[in-house]
Amino acid sequence: MLSKKTRKFISLTLSLAIVIFMFVGCSSQTQKQTDNNQGKVNAGKLSGKIEVDGSSTVFPITEAMAEEFQKMHKDVKITIGVSGTGGGFKRFTKGETDISDASRPIKDKEAKIAQENGIKYKQIKIAYDGISVLVNPQNDWVDNLTVEELKKIWEPNSKVKTWKDIRPEWPDKEIKLYGPGTDSGTFDYFTEEIIGESGKIRTDFTASEDDNVLVQGIAGDKYALGYFGYAYYVENKDVLKIVPINGVKPTTETIEKGEYTPLSRPLFIYVSQDSFNNKEQVREFVKFYLKNARDIVPETGYVPLKQEVYDKQLEELLSGK
């Protein structure tokens, strides 16, 4: 039989043990929560600037990517210019930007400037586009144009001044032409495929590297005609009418299957190797870009690549190939 004094001692000892156990448990739990919270804070600590410039055609894709990326990384500031593919490469090859949006591959003379300035880069294919020919919705006479007719309209020293000059049954009204400026990759691609030589075109048209300016011009003139990237048509279907070329209308399906020729083309971003290797915010943004392109690209009106193509490009980037 334990004495009263002994039982009291045991009781106090057990009580003290319970208190110590509870304190240790709570401390352990608190430390675990702190560790978890610290991990989340660290994950959101990404900061810094990312400088992007280039193609107005690619702009909607990069803008959408940036918006989604910045939801997770609010301290990262992404600036996106639209000086055109050529204008973007002028800055990129001097080391002024981290990423260059491009609606055509880099030219030899641009690559040479980059080499002279010690700028190494990686070309990344991100989507497919179909350069679209547009008229005003009030235009009720055009339901198709051939490549030959497009060339006749846009070639240097063109004799086409009115719609009647294309087909005799069309109105004897002056055509108001709108197209990308000379710094645009869309301009380069269109002239090469339609005229037969990059950069060759008539000069009496309203030119802009900003596709929104072209949209407004065509939407405001019944007798207008112009061309630009497919996504800008998708965004402005209510004020534009798209024209089939050689009987084929650009759609997600015809662009993806290669049926919309010759105006289907790939779109790119060019990533500075130095920025990718030494700026964590750039590296994480490009990784995000390739991991989410399959979902985000269609939202911007363009056609995505196969996921394995994005995966392979990311793998090559990370491995330094």
Automatic annotation (TrEMBL):
It holds the Pfam family PBP_like_2. Belongs to the PstS family. It is a lipid-anchor. Residues 1-32 form the signal peptide. The lineage of its organism: Bacteria, Bacillati, Bacillota, Tissierellia, Tissierellales. It comes from Caloranaerobacter azorensis. The complex is composed of two ATP-binding proteins (PstB), two transmembrane proteins (PstC and PstA) and a solute-binding protein (PstS). Keywords: Cell membrane, Lipoprotein, Membrane, Palmitate, Phosphate transport, Signal, Transport. Residues 45-291 form the PBP domain. PANTHER family: PERIPLASMIC PHOSPHATE BINDING COMPONENT OF PHOSPHATE ABC TRANSPORTER (PTHR30570), PHOSPHATE-BINDING PROTEIN PSTS (PTHR30570:SF1). This is Phosphate-binding protein. Part of the ABC transporter complex PstSACB involved in phosphate import. Gene3D superfamilies: Periplasmic binding protein-like II. One of its GO terms (cellular component) is plasma membrane.
